[in-house]
Design a protein that fits this description.
The complex is a heterodimer of chains A (about 625) and B (about 270). With about 625 residues, chain A is mostly helical. Helix content of chain A is about 65%, strand content about 0%. Chain A has helices at about 5, 10-15, 20-40, 45-50, 55-75, 75-85, 110-135, 145-165, 170-180, 190-210, 225-230, 235-260, 275-305, 320-355, 360-375, 390-400, 405-415, 425-450, 450-455, 460-490, 495-525, 540-570. The mean pLDDT of chain A is about 90. Chain B has helices at about 1-25, 35-65, 85-110, 230-245, 245-250, and strands at about 130-140, 140-145, 155, 160, 165-170, 175-180, 185-190, 195-200, 205-210, 225-230. In chain B, helix 1 runs antiparallel to helix 2 (about 35-65) and helix 2 packs antiparallel against helix 3 (about 85-110). The radius of gyration of chain B is 26 Å and the shape is elongated. The chains are: A mainly alpha (about 625), B alpha+beta (about 270).
């Protein structure tokens, strides 16, 4: 928006290619697809006559809705203009005020903040779902929602968290800080960067519309053939995950190209900040895993809409096919959630330990090793499914082998603390808590990877506790560490330290008090996703629920901190409040549109802290290529 | 470093025996069958390995967080050590050895007839001796049981003779379920069109819970049941009673098969 646009009245400024236009065209597109679907006649679709549920119409509705949404946001303008032979800049909306946050913007810093707010919104919705689930489980028999709505809540919580939070770190922080860390002026594909965000928002909105279509009873795994049997609320799940997969793929691609080809002079692989290594390996996982998910969902969509039978054994298909495809995506997916956490923790730790990152190459090898191994373990989700019993020792071994590279990451973090001068700031507290949580998550994972032990805990609350420790204790704690660490750069305002500490302690204690008892509940025989449970488990469940409410309240403390610090007090933060040596902190706050006046030249890695040890010569500048 | 080593040694020398000898053996699933006692033994060994590691990491963190904190408000820098092969190579070797041990141990335990897990139609790990086949038929939202060696009678209730090796043939009529008898240490997914075999030998007479442990639709939470392990003579009486009572039903049931497709699916392509 330029200056004469601001002179126009507000209603006139709202008309155009922005979020409002996207929503309007999205709704128009939905009804167009809905209408079109009802016009299609075929023998195989007579089935819909029986159920009064036309999946074709709903799917076309979602499809045209997404297209309309993107067109309304202005994603078609540039390709159309080029096709018509007009000259048009690929830069959009980089200058200007608040308006650029509500539309297509190609500035990576704007997209980062868009991601932070958008993901925050859906994280909040997923969190409210969790609170409702725990409210239902206060009593052993259904009291608030009933079985169907309860399953929808469980499914919404799981799907929302697993889907949206895949981009939870890469979206806001990697988009914002990777170009700054590698001394680039922008991401490699700025328009692709923008579309990943808006695809994610479309996905989240579509998932929420399942409420209008009766919800879905499948949880986040959406196993066949239950997904074929489910009523048409499930179509939103298909579109949600397909769009999330598309968004992940494009985001990963963009990130890989940026990190490989846009590094500043002198930024060799062995000087690349460890956060960029985390982002890079996550991106590789995204690019390789997400297409498998999209293919699987396409088959589900065909099974549901045009009556194919990829997954129906009675008609020649196999439900194992879906489980295999889903977990071939699904297991890398959980490392897509964990690896950015590794990167953040190892990036932040040296700043507050005032020491170089210990064993940089060891840590990189650990991150790459986890990424590589994550593709070889997916059948540990199917240990009791009856598939390939002779391959169980292999999957047991490959799963346990992941603890070796994870151990290297742990070692790097632990040794960085040795003879350090630790400053206990809020980001540092979250980092240290990450080690605590992730160790419990990892150790319980060893139990689950062991087949005999897994037989008794598979599909129970034990598994639930395990992955909440690994993902919430890993990713979300790292996510908050990143927020407290980088918000001064992103918004030019520091978050309040005291409220931050209250938030941390409340969250840390409530988190452990919520999820540690779930291990016991699982061992005592409580399966996942049940609305009713034996009454002797009620005291423990009540304890968990109350802890979960405190955990939810700690998020409100955080929101309070955000409002207090960013809206009310607005104390300006210095350009480098943590005295970090990393490149992103050398830029002025707020970061100018082009990031750097001229390309920075890098002559060391960003962990040049500390005093040299007395007896040893100063560390040599790293020159050899990094492993991998 | 020496202080950490001493603290680790003392603490894990105290804690590991407590965990291994006192806590772990009392944990579920208990000792009601060979599978469940195998699982408890397995968990006990894993606890024996995890406890010293957890103690080591906890001791290190508490030491480092306390001793290496910044004292006073003025900025201070740590010691710029960057790497030390004397640390990371033993670490790598140590973790690798632990992993290899875990995998070998888990495989050895798994070789005991699959440790109670569902192994599919062609089990890789089989028990020796005579086996009583029991078919578990899951459907939304209940389990029924067929005894092929007793005329294929189908019952709504599961009874097993104590001390007899049982092979559960788990299958489903509609969506994926999972047959889980926690106290017996048995879990096997019920897939439509698949004969998923799990072995167990109940070793004490008891009443046990059965849950569906794979999300199977609306009333998944209500898909539970109770089964009994009884003496062989009581089982003989019970099963003959069932054969007599359900004789008219057995006549119209489909012949015993590894799986069933109740109705043709309406599929277009």
């Amino acid at each position: 928006m330029n200056s004469d646009a601001i002179a126009r009245p507000l209603w006139r400024r709202l008309i155009g290619f922005n979020l409002l236009g996207g929503i309007v065209l999205g709704i128009v597109g939905f009804y167009f697809g809905w209408w079109l679907g009802h016009q299609i006649k075929a023998d195989s679709l007579d089935y819909f006559g029986d159920t009064n549920q036309n999946d074709v119409a709903l799917m076309l509705g979602y499809l045209f809705s997404v297209i309309g949404f993107l067109v309304g946001l202005g994603f078609a303008n540039y390709p159309l203009a080029r096709m018509l032979g007009r000259d048009r800049s690929h830069v959009e909306n980089e200058e200007g005020g608040v308006g650029r946050y509500f539309g297509l913007c190609t500035d990576h810093k704007v997209v980062g903040i868009q991601y932070l707010l958008g993901i925050g919104l859906f994280f909040f919705i997923g969190g409210v779902n969790a609170m409702l689930i725990r409210a239902e489980l206060l009593r052993p028999s259904p009291q608030l929602f009933g079985a169907g709505n309860y399953l929808t809540l469980v499914g919404l919580h799981g799907t929302m968290m697993m889907g949206i939070m895949t981009s939870g770190v890469l979206g806001p922080f990697a988009n914002y800080f990777v170009p700054l860390m590698i001394g680039a002026r922008r991401m490699a594909f700025p328009r692709i960067e923008a579309i990943t965000f808006w695809l994610l928002m479309a996905a989240g909105t579509i998932l929420m519309t399942t409420i209008f279509f009766g919800g879905f009873p499948t949880g986040w795994t959406g196993y066949a053939p239950l997904n074929v049997q489910a009523n048409y609320g499930f179509d939103s799940y298909i579109f949600f995950f397909a769009l999330v997969g598309l968004s992940m793929m494009l985001l990963g691609l963009n990130m890989i190209v940026t990190i490989i080809s846009m590094r500043a002079p002198g930024l060799t692989w062995s000087r690349l900040p460890i956060f960029c290594w985390g982002a890079l390996s996550t991106s590789v996982l995204m690019v390789l895993a997400a297409p498998v998910l999209i293919a699987a969902l396409l088959m589900v969509a065909f099974d549901r809409s045009v009556q194919t039978s990829f997954f129906l054994s009675s008609a020649g298909g196999s439900p194992y096919l879906f489980q295999n495809l889903f977990w071939f995506f699904g297991h890398p997916e959980v490392y897509v959630l964990a690896l950015p956490g590794f990167g953040i923790i190892l990036e932040i730790l040296p700043v507050f330990a005032r020491k170089p990152l210990w064993g940089y190459r060891t840590a990189v090898a650990g991150i790459l090793g986890v990424a590589l191994l994550s593709f070889f373990v997916w059948q540990h989700h199917l240990f009791v499914s009856g598939l390939n019993s002779s391959l169980r020792p292999f999957y047991m071994f490959s799963t346990e082998a992941i603890s070796v590279p994870t151990g290297l990451v742990f070692l790097a973090g632990m040794a960085t603390l040795w003879r350090a001068k630790i400053r206990y700031t809020v980001p540092m507290l979250f980092c240290l808590a990450w080690f605590f949580n992730f160790f419990i998550g990892g150790a319980s994972g060893v139990f689950l990877s062991d087949v005999p032990s897994d037989v008794s805990t598979h599909g129970t609350f034990f598994v639930m506790a395990h992955f909440h420790y690994a993902i919430m204790g890993g990713l979300i704690f790292a996510f908050f560490a990143a927020i407290y660490y980088w918000v001064p750069k992103m918004f030019g305002v520091a978050l309040n330290e005291r409220l931050g500490k209250i938030h941390f302690w409340m969250m840390f204690i409530a988190f452990n008090s919520t999820f540690a008892p779930l291990f016991a509940l699982g061992l005592m025989g409580m399966p996942r996703r049940v609305v009713t449970y034996p009454s002797h488990l009620q005291p423990l469940n009540d304890w968990v629920s109350v802890s979960a409410f405190v955990l939810g309240a700690s998020m409100l403390v955080f929101l309070g901190n955000v409002v207090y610090s960013l809206v009310i007090v607005r104390k300006p933060a210095p350009a480098n409040p943590w005295e970090s040596r990393s490149l992103e902190w050398t830029t002025p706050t707020p970061v100018p549109v082009g990031n750097f006046d001229r390309p920075p030249v890098i002559d060391s890695d960003p962990y040049d802290y500390g005093v040299p040890p007395v007896a040893l010569p100063p560390p040599p500048a790293a020159q050899a290529p990094a492993p991998g | 470093m020496r202080r950490i080593a001493i603290a680790w040694f003392v603490l894990s020398a105290i804690l590991t025996p407590i965990v291994v000898a006192v806590i772990a053996p009392t944990l579920p699933p208990g000792n009601a069958s060979n599978a469940s006692s195998g699982q408890v033994f397995d968990d006990t060994v894993l606890f024996g390995i995890v406890t010293p590691i957890a103690v080591a990491i906890a001791v290190y963190f508490f030491y480092a967080m306390f001793v290496f904190r910044r004292r006073g408000p003025e900025p201070q820098e740590g010691v710029a050590t960057r790497d030390n092969p004397g640390v990371h190579i033993p670490w790598l070797v140590g973790t690798t050895v632990i992993v290899l041990f875990l995998a070998t141990f888990g495989t050895a335990e798994l070789a005991d007839a699959g440790a109670g897990g569902g192994q599919g139609p062609d089990p890789a790990f089989k028990p020796s001796g005579k086996v009583l086949p029991v078919q578990v038929i899951a459907q939304q939202w209940e389990f029924t049981y067929r005894y092929p060696t007793y005329g294929g009678v189908e019952t709504a209730h599961l009874e097993l003779p104590v001390g007899q090796q049982v092979a559960f043939h788990v299958t489903s009529l509609d969506v994926i379920h999972s047959f889980w008898a926690p106290k017996l240490g048995v879990k096997a997914d019920a897939n439509p069109g698949v004969d998923n075999i799990a072995y167990v030998k109940p070793e004490e007479e008891l009443s046990f819970e059965i849950h569906c442990s794979e999300l199977c639709g609306l009333w998944h939470g209500y898909m539970f049941d109770t089964g009994q392990v009884v003496s062989p003579s009581a089982f003989g009486e019970w099963i003959h009673e069932q054969q007599r009572v359900f004789a008219p039903a057995t006549k119209v049931l489909p012949k015993y098969a590894t799986h069933y497709f109740p109705e043709p699916e309406r599929r277009g392509g």
